[in-house]
Amino acid sequence: MTVRLVPPVSSLGLYGPADEPLAEGPRFVRTDRMARWHRIRSGVHRGDGRTVYTLWCGSFVRDDDFLSREQLRDDDLVCGPCDGRAVGSGQEPVGPAGRRLVFTPRDLAPPRVCPGSRDAALTAVDAAGTVGRCLACSDLHPVRAMGGPYNPRAAIVQHAPGARLVAPCPFHRWKYLTPGPDGIRCSCGRELTSNGDAR
Q: Does the pTM of the predicted model rise above 0.70?
């Protein structure tokens, strides 16, 4: 039995266009050096052929260096932070000893402020210079001068994301959007679409 994994969100430049996020993974894992069994948070199949799993407690295992199990024995030790976060996030339906746990991973929900807000690179200004289209969500908003005398720019005002917000990058979500030749892309090079899929 495999479990559903969350996207491998990272604010570091760890992943590129050749890397693919994994949707499922083993239930319990550990290496020979680990004293406890751990739970997998996310997984990435790297462009060089390796698979790396990130654990809920912050550690990681590689595909050539771990053991996996679907069920544990009563005397097996389990990492508490891993098990609690995995159950609380909905990866498992019932917590340890039947307790109901809750945990919400950061960065999975759409942002409250559109990433195209106040960003001149993500603003398409009309001919009059008063209205701009947000390249991140395609909504129209007023354009204002901002940045002061040392960093002047014209960009759309801060706004909530529109209904056509681009799909998140599986690695960086909406953190590093840049305009590309055919639309919006993440700074890691992955091209993003507005229909919910990242190419």
A: no
- 59-65: long-range contacts at Cβ-Cβ below 8 A with a sequence spacing of 24 or more? 59/34, 61/29, 61/30, 61/31, 65/31
pLDDT, tens digit (0-9, with 9 covering 90-100), for 122-131: 999 888 889 9
Q: Could you tell me the maximum CA-CA distance found in the chain, to the nearest angstrom? A: 72
Is 50 a residue whose pLDDT tops 50? Answer: yes
Q: Give residue 44's pLDDT.
A: 93
| Residues whose CB falls within 8 Å of the CB of residue 141, separated by 6 or more in sequence, listed in order | 131, 132, 134, 156, 157, 159
Cα 44 to Cα 36, 54, 158, 192: the distances in Å are 22, 9, 34, 18
State how far Cα 175 lies from the chain centre. Answer: 9
d(CA 144, CA 117): 11
Please answer whether residues 45 and 23 qualify as being in contact, where contact means their C-beta atoms are separated by less than 8 angstroms: no
- Give the integer Cα–Cα distance in Å for 45 and 39: 18
Identify the band that residue 77 occupies on the pLDDT scale cut at 50, 70 and 90.
confident
Q: Which of 132, 130, 133, 136 is CA-nearest to residue 113? A: 136
